[in-house]
Design a protein that fits this description.
single chain, 474 residues, mainly alpha, binds fe (ii) ion
Length: 474
């Protein structure tokens, strides 16, 4: 499974043995590069960036470090090794052999799932393209670019599947993945969250913590798929994805640490005094968290979903970590939802488990999100403050599903629209919060130097010191 780097497209799928496929992808490659130059990180294309590149999918080779100019990054096609004994792990075909080709009856659905996943990858690169200018350090700048090139590679992963298994339709979809653009009025990206530009680094850290984690859970569901090439693709993507969430987790941690330092130095928790000192007060961190967590919750779809039920029944998309469940058929179980009753209260409703798969996945996601919040709170607690960050309820500020448009407190208690409007400023980033955060965003591009609103990281990348020259600007 060593990656062949002598091919124009690095790969571990023996691309050279399929000339037609190889030529089709070599045709797509310059289109991808053109997209990268136009809509990838703005103004840093000639910088030498200390990047990680995979040279094989095993533990030894998947993380090789060195300086690369981003347009010369070796984007390629890497799948986990095939397990010849792998069986379908859930749904109506449980226990049967997994598929190496796409069954005709699931072709359109699988293509849609792959395109929807694929669309988010370049979308996030587009959303983040202006952030390089305001990076709080070279270390952070490098991490941004690492995330960006890997999202580019995830697009490659999905495009490979489209080209290799979906014929002409797949090739057309691959082209369209470069034609839709984040925030474009005529051809926007498929999912709402991926059309919002990310203008500041607090949002970037929230995005990599919360929205990349949605990506993790989507990939975990697809990694269970009976369509084996899709499963193996997603398994390898998850190894790379972990770093993106690390960037968010440690980024928020460092923001909080710096704020606590300022609170200690000035002996205050007055948000305005903390802001005047150039740090981000904790209530503002909470408001950004509320915004990004809730917009990521919507990405899982409606609580009740007949699509999700048929994905599960047909073995296309499973539950994350399907092996942890006892019953992989899930026809006899029910799931209890707490829904708005339409008159300001809530009611319980039981639905068949298969129809609740979105909610099952969303709940696992929420539990995963809690881990970082606990860690950040330990830092605050250790510093002797009573403030605590918290995930809002999954009912709060929803745009999709049963709670869409139902005003609630962050704890999920339904309230009137007037009451909500009166509290909104305290719960979600206001225009003045955004203006303040943007006012802090100035690029710090000297090795080892940090912007005043963020603490340095505990350690550098690949055992290098924090003041390593992670990006050589020219
Ligand atoms: Fe990704
Ligand atoms: Fe990611």
């Amino acid at each position: 499974m060593t990656i062949n780097y002598s091919d124009r497209i690095p790969n571990n799928v023996d691309l050279g043995s399929n000339r037609t496929l190889q030529r089709a992808l070599e045709h797509w490659q310059p289109e991808f590069l053109k997209w990268w130059e136009e809509l990838g990180p703005k103004d840093f294309q000639v910088a030498d960036v200390y990047l990680r590149t995979a040279t094989s999918v095993d533990a030894k080779g998947w993380a090789t470090y060195g300086y690369v100019r981003m347009p010369e990054y070796r984007w390629g096609i890497f799948l986990n090794e095939r397990d010849p004994n792998r069986r379908i792990g859930f749904g109506d075909n449980f226990g049967q052999e997994v598929w190496q080709q796409v069954p005709g009856e699931y072709r359109a659905t699988l293509r849609r799932l792959i395109v929807t996943q694929g669309d988010t990858e370049p979308a996030s690169v587009e959303q983040q393209r202006m952030l390089g200018h305001t990076a709080p350090s070279l270390y952070d700048l490098r991490n941004l670019f690492q995330v960006n090139v890997e999202e580019g590679r995830h697009l490659w992963a999905m495009v490979y599947l489209l080209h290799a298994y979906f014929g002409r339709d797949g090739r057309e979809e691959a082209e369209e993945l470069l034609e839709r653009h984040s925030g474009d009025a005529d051809k926007p990206r498929i999912l709402g969250t991926f059309n919002e530009p990310i203008r500041d680094w607090l949002s970037f850290f929230m995005f990599t913590y919360f929205t990349d984690r949605d990506g993790k859970f989507q990939l975990k569901s697809l990694a269970e798929s009976s369509f084996d090439p899709l499963a193996r693709t997603c398994q390898f993507m998850l190894t790379e994805e972990a770093h993106h969430m690390f960037v968010g987790d440690t980024g928020i941690n460092r923001v909080v640490r710096r704020t606590l330092e300022v609170m200690h130095e000035l002996n205050t928790d007055d948000p305005q005094v903390i802001r005047n000192a150039g740090a981000i007060d904790l209530p503002t961190v909470q408001r950004y968290l509320n915004f990004w967590f809730t917009s990521s919750l919507d990405l899982f779809g409606s609580e009740t979903s007949s699509n999700a039920a048929s994905y599960f029944a047909n073995g296309l998309k499973g539950r994350p970590d399907e092996a942890q469940y006892e019953d992989h058929i899930a026809v006899e179980q029910a799931y209890t939802l707490e829904l708005p009753d339409g008159s300001g209260g809530t009611k319980s409703e039981q639905i068949p488990m298969r129809n609740a798969m979105n909610e099952v996945t969303r709940s696992s996601y929420v539990r995963d999100c809690e881990i970082g919040v606990k860690r950040w709170n330990r830092v605050i607690e250790k510093a002797g403050h009573s403030f605590r960050l918290a995930l809002p309820s999954t009912r709060f500020r929803r745009s999709i599903g049963n709670w869409a448009g139902v005003p609630t407190t962050p704890e999920g208690v339904p309230m009137s629209a007037e009451q909500f409007a009166a509290h909104k400023q305290a719960w979600l980033p206001s225009e003045s919060d955004q203006t303040f955060i943007l006012s802090l965003m100035h690029g710090v591009h000297q090795p080892g130097k940090m912007a005043a609103w963020i603490a340095p990281p505990d350690r550098g990348i690949n055992n290098n010191p924090v003041d390593y020259e992670y990006v050589k600007l020219h």
